[in-house]
Amino acid sequence: MACNERLANGAEGYVGLPNVPYSQCEEWCKAGTALGITDLDVCSIAWNNPVPWRKIAGDFGEGAIMDEWAGYVLVLGFGVFFSIVTTIMVKLEQIYGGLVISSEHFNTAGRNIKTGLTAAVIVSQWTWAATLLQSSNVASKYGLSGPFWYAAGATVQILLFGILAIEIKKKAPNMHTFLEMIDVRWGKLAHLTFLFFAICTNLIVTGMLLQGGAAVVNAASGMHIIAANFLIPVGVILYTWFGGLKATFLASYIHTSVIMICLVVFITYVYAVPGDIECTSATEKQCNALGSAALLWERLRFLNYLPAKTAGMTFPDGAYVPTADDPGPGNFEKLTYTEEDYHHGPVKGNRGGSYLTMLSEGGLSFGVVNIVGNFGTVFVDQSYWQSAIAARPSSAHRGYLLGGLVWFTIPMSLATALGLSSLALNVKMPADEAADGLAPPAAAIVLLGQGGGIMIIIMLFMAITSTGSAECIAVASLFAYDIYRKYINPECTGAQLLKVSRLVVVGYGIVCGLFGYFLYGVGVSLGWVYNFMGTMIGSAVIPVSCCLCTRYMTKNGAIAGAWGGMILALVSWMSVAASRCTNGDDPDDLAEGVDCDTGKLNVDTLGNINAQTAGSVVALCVSGIIAFLVASIEYKMGTEQPFEWEKMREGIKRVEQVKDELPEFEMTAEYLDPAAKYVFKYGVGYSVFLIFVWPLAVIAWGVFDKANYTLWASIAYCWGYIGSLVIVVLPVYESWGSLKNVLTCTKPAPEAKE
């Protein structure tokens, strides 16, 4: 092992870091040998002085990588830039592709989106700020099980939603919102019930976007979080107002491409680029680099060996930070360390206390919350129904399957790389910073300096603007069709609907800023809201799905299931929270003989993972039991009859009778029935593989050895490259005809319009 070179000449000839004395290096070197560490020089890292990531890029006052004014320029500049680019793209399609922005097109994109763009849009819509930030937070808490359960637990909903995408084409080809089919089937009370759940879903998703974005911008530049909450939506409002859903789709492709390119850069840097100094040679400069899965494994292995820090210990008063003038060991920066800044020692609830295992109690609990909660944010979010409506029949099922499998790589590959790197690089990061989503920028800045932090901000803005735009269009559609057309002006024209949609886009942008301010004011973190969403909206999933998938669900069953499930979920959530310690810890995790106060409800207790797991599971499962029980009683009493799907096909009318530019055979039963069987087989099959087969297959690995972890990282690495290539190239290939018209300034003849 390389540390032996440092010790070869004894204490007098010792060459080491200024804050790692000879005796400490000798102790660590012996421990590393016993742990099977062969490549890493454990003395090349000052483990007792966690890396102050905010100081790496230089002195920017409150910001880690830029001055405050630069943060304002970045936030507003990105928004305006992409607004201009997207608006130009829509305008070019109007000129050279014959695009006409009507109310129908504003809200449905012409119902003619192909497979590649559908998949890119799904990836973009499902890539929240939480996807980039929260996935790395759970990696820093639970180890490698966190990214897997985030990725697998949020992929199955997209795969299974492909089933509903085909059912839309078969049973409700004219729908604009999923609430229209609920109104036709179950009436006004059910319509208002699920309108409530739909708006709650949009607010929760948008709130998380702003929470993550504002936290990172604040950390990077010092911009006040409240200002960021109001300024981030500005750019989204501009291009969404102009181009509607098609503008959102075009922007989503650009955003997805940028995110995937940045992802490839990060995973390559973590697993293949050793940095300016390899952690295998004896120098006076601290090694803040990785370069291979083996080195990442060895760092995490050694991190678990180090004793956990507790209050009352003596902590160092600073750390050496490399600069351009003094790359090693660097300038000494005075810092205050507490036990919260360290990630040393065993992980509670993990096999062997290791970060390198799938046998994690916390990771599994998070997986359950993630699976349940994300059913609500897909099946009750109008933006996903809108994407299914916009997709052409031949693309809907393939687009959702491809989008789900490509999206899997973002949390899996990125968090396995950056989330675990934030631990392995020994970054100074308290739990509250990690909960706010700062693990990825911290790891990126330590690895790549200022450029790494800027890349994370770019990825984050791509996620915020694309998903934010989709949420704006979703809410605009709900207000236009399910409030204005339904209750205010049933005889409205297409022009009036278009005007209402655009006004709502602006209004919702303002509401988003206010809601982000509210979440900041009450003091809940991104992780808190992410885990809570299942409790709040999970009870609507089964009733909404049954509206399109079975003839036998009744109005009263659906309403009772949604409200009853939510009420019982909230009761379960608060009951379990009241049994937790006032600081949010589980009493069972305390040392023997240590007690804590319980019986209180506060942000910490309500954010406990077990409390939120209870609420999420009750919401999803109990709502289904109530719904089917009520429906069974009504059928038994003879008060209800099975629903006839023809009523839904005929009951939803378009305001503007615009002919869809689709081959007629794609809307026939002969075409759609095989597509439905295809998406059911592969959607369910892939879901079972991700949730059951894969994790069960690696249980026997226990704590991963170096070879097993290298295999695990290699799968994530290759999946990242393949997914990025497919999602960037396929939409261009499928739309090459339209792109060629734009590039050659050729206006297609009327009969040649796509």
Measured as a percent range, the helix fraction is 55-70%
Bin the strand percentage: under 5%
Number of strands: 2
Quaternary class = single chain
Structural class: mainly alpha
User: Which stretches are low in confidence, meaning pLDDT under 50 for 5 or more residues running?
Assistant: none
How many angstroms does the end-to-end distance come to?
Answer: 64 Å
Chain-averaged pLDDT: 85
Inertia-based shape:
globular
Arrangement of strands in the largest sheet = 1-2
Biggest sheet statistics: 2 strands, antiparallel
Alpha plus pi helix count: 30
What integer value in Å does the Rg equal?
A: 27 Å
What does this structure look like?
By secondary structure, this protein is mainly alpha-helical. The protein is built from 30 helices and 2 strands. It has helices at residues 3-7, 22-34, 53-56, 68-96, 103-108, 115-126, 129-142, 145-171, 178-186, 188-221, 225-231, 233-272, 293-305, 361-379, 382-390, 393-407, 409-424, 431-435, 439-448, 450-488, 494-522, 526-537, 541-549, 555-578, 603-606, 609-637, 645-651, 669-699, 706-734, 736-743; strands spanning 318-321, 331-334. A two-stranded antiparallel sheet has the order 1-2. α10 packs across α11. It is globular and about 90 Å long.
